[in-house]
């Protein structure tokens, strides 16, 4: 029992004893704090204690050799009050850069298992000493009570991707705690109104927005997105409205609890492919000071492989790193009740220590079969910055889903009217069976998306042909040039009523298509009211209205918002869209593809009209059929279509038609029945019809 432990030694005036070697990090125990850290190549380790805010340690407590077991140092220091100190480590060892060994006892080393990092509590406040990070010990005693998570099936997810700061930082958000976890919590009623059932938070692990601070044309540029992780176990303190407590992650846990209590799951965007330490020219504050040649992939001469495009790549399949990543994910699932993770540049997680891709990467397999992560959603961004593209082939063990980049690219091109994409569109709409075998993977493998943080917003996709990234400071050379966008005839904002009306229609077309596609759906927060980044497709450094949501546009584009809200409800209402249901009395196939004529799919290079039909038994009454028909006419000319015939007693009812006036697009309550199954679709429109029983 912890209360029975007594000091065995006195070092530098502190009573100490050997600690708990299997508890990583710094943990409060009865009468003191347990400190545990491991290094394979270090020859000595010293614990450094600081007064809060101090840059010079007030105590240096070396770990005695007798307190070291194997490669692990562990010590309980008695008499410490956790709100009265911060800590770091100093490690000594060999310094041979060509072998990747760069120990430096004069550097402060941040505990990689730290639950809170000091020095970055205020957003945009530059530290006096760049890249000097210290940790603090915190209680982990949040009471979740008898809380029950929503447990939403993967295929039913409607994922809303947001940046914690950008979601509410603008004054137009109307929240009290702008740019924080608490600010999102204030917006839960909005999220419920919209109807999404999952939020994907862009990186919330501790990062330093000032780490790549630059000034361009008098404007401050930041590491705004947060994809350069400083510490993997600690929430980003600048996202909290109150940084003074010592209850770890309390605001974040309250947010997660309230989101899930309202039926909204929480997915974290996690970055295990690289860290903020960069290459040999980058800072030295954590892994470099522990075991540089273990934690990072190094070339034979000790340089850093750069499959991430950010200077380094974590050596994810080394046993030590693999265990670190798994421990981290387990921590977020057990202590924060996280429902899933989206892994940034996940193909790096499948590379060997020499950088070559592996057939069955140990890390990915261990996460797939880990019992604690057994109900956790695992989503891979199945490519990396070095050209490894694994969409459709990412190692899965029927556990991993993928951001379907092929869906994004094919559907963007099809929706704007490009040639020879009809079959690609049909495949993407019906779950990308050409990429993912539905027999083994069902309809959960393909996370469909048209927009995300990286690239144009949905509005910008139809307002810009070219990227406009000049304010990033790289002379518009950053960001992708392959946007598959169309500006509708004018680059950027215009007063032309026809172009603006067309843009709204195309936004609605795209959103409806996403909601009527099989597979989990993801879209960028703000797309539902035409948020714009003014053509910037790589706004990673823009901490301003470029990246913040402008909530004024919700009123300006109220028709788009109401349509998106309706389409989310439509997807949730008709379950045959997201999964094959029991057939009951239905004689139609679970899914089918159609052209302008039912059952005819003689698609050619010029085909721009594709329809899908989903059919099965009603969830509420197996004796009733649930049949949904969704059609896309991406051509600029009208299409005269015929819908498939229905079982006896059923007739098609039109639910949406984006070719109508903006206030008439949702037609469900207009009782437009298609008795002859024929309909004229305007150019560049979509429609949805549902079979109704005639009693």
Notes on the structure:
- By secondary structure, the chain is of the alpha+beta class.
- Among the domains are: 134 residues, Immunoglobulins (Immunoglobulin-like); 161 residues, Alpha-Beta Barrel (TIM Barrel), CATH 3.20.20.80; 112 residues, Golgi alpha-mannosidase II (Immunoglobulin-like), CATH 2.60.40.1180.
- The protein is 18% helix and 22% strand.
- It has 13 helices and 33 strands.
- An eight-stranded parallel barrel has the order 14-15-20-21-22-23-24-25.
- Strand 3 and strand 4 form a beta hairpin.
What layout of secondary structure does this protein have?
Layout: E1 9-11, E2 14-18, E3 25-29, E4 32-38, E5 44-50, E6 59-62, E7 68-69, E8 72-78, E9 86-92, E10 95-96, E11 101-102, E12 117-118, E13 134-135, E14 158-162, H1 164-168, H2 181-186, H3 188-194, E15 198-201, E16 205-207, E17 214-216, E18 219-221, E19 229-235, H4 250-261, E20 265-270, H5 287-295, H6 319-336, E21 340-343, H7 362-368, E22 377-380, E23 400-403, H8 405-415, H9 422-429, H10 438-441, E24 446-449, H11 497-515, E25 521-524, H12 553-556, H13 558-573, E26 591-594, E27 609-617, E28 625-633, E29 639-642, E30 650-657, E31 673-674, E32 678-681, E33 685-693
Parallel strand pairs: 14-15, 14-25, 15-20, 20-21, 21-22, 22-23, 23-24, 24-25
Antiparallel strand pairs: 1-2, 2-8, 3-4, 4-8, 5-6, 5-9, 7-8, 10-11, 12-13, 16-19, 17-18, 26-27, 27-28, 28-33, 29-32, 30-31, 30-33
Helix pairs in contact: 6-7, 8-9, 11-13
Structural class: alpha+beta
The number of strands is: 33
Count of helix runs: 13
Using only C-alpha atoms, the radius of gyration works out to 27 Å
Supply the CATH class of the domain at 405-565: Alpha Beta
CATH architecture of the domain at 405-565: Alpha-Beta Barrel
- Note the main sheet: 8 strands, parallel, barrel
- Give average pLDDT, whole number: 95
The best one-word shape is: elongated
Strand order, largest beta sheet: 14-15-20-21-22-23-24-25
First-residue to last-residue Cα separation? 71 Å
| CATH superfamily (homologous) name of the domain at 405-565 | Glycosidases
Low-confidence stretches: none
Helix content estimate? 10-25%
Q: Per CATH, what is the topology of the domain at 405-565?
A: TIM Barrel
Strand content: 15-25%
